[in-house]
Design goal:
This protein is mainly alpha-helical and 85 residues long. It has one domain: Nucleoside diphosphate kinase-like domain (Alpha-Beta Plaits, 2-Layer Sandwich). Helices cover 34% and strands 0% of the residues. The longest helix has 11 residues. The chain starts with 16 loop residues before the first helix and ends with a helix. One of its GO terms (molecular function) is ATP binding. It is an enzyme of class 2 (transferase). This is Nucleoside diphosphate kinase.
Amino acid sequence: YIISGPVVAMVWAGKNVVVTGRKIIGATNPADSAPGTIRGDLAIEIGRNVIHGSDSIESASKEIALWFPEGVAEWQSNLHPWIYE
């Protein structure tokens, strides 16, 4: 399914990013996803999911290497000091 249309690959980074990202994305089964999550609002079936998110830092490391073999660009928002201690 992933090759059936355009893909936008990105790396999310931050404190507790896997847990926070999974909350934003929603449960793997869209029927179990809360309204307001990406899957809860935009997905219908597990096999035709609209988004993927790593379930652990280890999985993320492997997936980042797959999608970004040359590495990711380092970037930090100007708001970073206001968000993180």
